[in-house]
Specification:
Length: about 270
């Protein structure tokens, strides 16, 4: 089976919704949005960890206000049994504290946790509006000694994801790669997000009436099953699927690990 982890947004009531819909055997990652802040992300992750989930909080570097706040976050994670975080630069225009990108935050996490907390980092098969072309790969090379894996931005093309993995291997990035895939969400919502997060190229099919659009749309909803099937056929090249749920906690698509266990955004370096 193909391993899958689910990303959620720490909105009001999401812990209860996860507990009602997702078995604890499915890892849950908790995003960090500028208007929510790091605190809400970490609180949600620790609550999920207390319910038996493998919870992975996202830490946005430009949202961390101080090194003292970081040490408190790491202490809270350790106390809750959380051994992994996901580090991004974040979408704040100006840093709230000493970290203007993911790299210095990764360095301090390594130092302050004595290497006991692993950190994932972001990859961009289609680039990112906040990054110069090529900067994303260079950033991964600079950070990989501090990271445990890469999670790609939400993407809608298996060849693009696999070509990106091949590129990383050619330049010397050897970290395991989780393929970022959108869950079953309304087409209009995905289209509205595309320009913000830089995935317009692989999303163009949603505006068309051709066979690919018919294959990947169920009514007005995007359906990820066929994309996941393509990725699964190349599972030796991928660590698994990172499912962007947008808090739509429908059953995990068939063909992915933990699917039978179910009971019921934008980032830069």
């Amino acid at each position: 089976m193909f391993p899958t982890r689910i990303e959620i947004i720490p909105s009001e009531g999401i812990v209860e919704r996860v507990a009602a819909a997702v078995a604890p055997s499915t890892p849950i990652t908790v995003t960090c949005l500028p208007h929510h802040g790091v605190g809400r992300t970490v609180r949600t992750a620790t609550q999920l960890a207390g319910l038996g989930y493998t919870a992975i909080p996202h830490l946005a570097a430009r949202s961390v206000q101080s090194r003292a706040e970081l040490t408190g976050i790491l202490r809270n994670c350790s106390d809750a049994g959380i051994g992994e975080v996901f580090v991004i630069g974040g979408d704040r225009k100006h840093p709230a504290g000493p970290y203007d990108s993911a790299l210095p935050l990764l360095e301090d996490i390594e130092q302050y946790s004595s290497g006991l907390i692993r950190a994932g980092i972001a990859g961009y098969p289609e680039g990112h509006p906040f990054l110069d072309p090529g900067a994303g790969v260079d950033a991964l090379l600079a950070k990989q000694h501090l990271a445990s894996h890469v999670v790609t931005q939400m993407c809608f093309s298996a060849p693009r994801i696999l070509d990106y993995v091949a590129l990383l291997r050619r330049v010397g990035v050897q970290l395991p790669v989780w393929a970022g895939v959108a869950g079953a969400v309304p087409r209009t919502r995905l289209v509205s997000l595309a320009a913000q997060i830089g995935v317009g190229s692989s999303l163009k099919f949603l505006s068309r009436k051709g066979p690919l659009a018919r294959k990947l749309l169920v009514g007005d909803h995007y359906a990820p099953e066929s994309l996941i099937a393509e990725l699964k056929s190349q599972s030796a090249r991928l660590a698994g699927i990172h499912l962007y749920s947008f808090n739509s906690l429908d059953p995990t698509p068939s063909g992915t690990d933990h699917g039978s266990d179910i009971k019921g955004a934008s980032r830069a370096n």
